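[step 3/7] fold_predict: job queued, chain A
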Amino acid sequence: MSCARFFPPRLFVFSPVAALVGALFLCLSLAAPAGAADPAPREGILLVAFGTSVPEAEAAFKATDKAFRAAWPDSPVVWAYTSQIIRKKLAKEGRPVGGIAAGLAQLARDGVEVVRVQSLHVMAGEEFAALARAVLLDVAKHPGRFKAVYLGRPLLESRADAQDVAKDVLGALAGRRQPGDALVLMGHGQEKGRADLVLEGTRAAFQTSDPLVFIASVEGSRSFDELLAELRAHKVRRVWLQPLMLVAGDHARNDLAGEEEDSWASRLRAAGFEVEANLVGLGEVPGIAERFVEHARASEDDLTREPRKE
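[step 4/7] structure written:
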């Protein structure tokens, strides 16, 4: 049907120019695709961490939050802690932080259509597996609530990840560590060894950059005794201690640098080493929060759809 049929000449009481303009406007309107003016779906961010109740450790979370709000300035950023013990403690203190289900529900109330769930775990151990299960269960319980739910991977998975983190950590200590000083990083690890291989790969990446960087973990196979033997073999005298964890929380302040005789700091001093504690969580190290942002942007793992089969 031509556009002229909408404007019979006998109905025109205005000028031919006005008629032509009106006809062109209607033709363009009819020809425009129905979805051309549809806005992009609103995105929201759910940042998921184990959590902390140590006020001094929250600086790492604040730095991470700032980086995500800068990367998605028009999107709501919601936090979720996976530890029920920490959530209950914070609730009693009047500082409530919800879990994963509560965080997703909040984003839905905020009108979010596309969710980016970003793990703030350092490695994909038990905690990350539990996070993935919790998100999948919530998606299955509320089908259609979101158009897409993307799951961002933990900080350390690839060789490139380890190299980037090594550059960030070593760069932050430049000018403070003296030549010959060792750097000891405490990872969390996992009792059944599920993080061992990632920890070993990270250790190799650090030692390629600096042979005097050593990594051991609270749990897992690489123990303090093995660390002590390495330090003695390298004949170092001064040791810097730093957590290989997102926050400098309970493990960092007690197991790593505490005054108790069984802390790493106390055992190293008893073995004759000079010890400096750098109680800075990874989230406070410049560049680390941006690594998490990169993982969130790169995620193609949409949990609302079946995985593509090649």
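[step 5/7] annotate
The mean pLDDT is 89.
The longest helix spans residues 16-31.
exit 0
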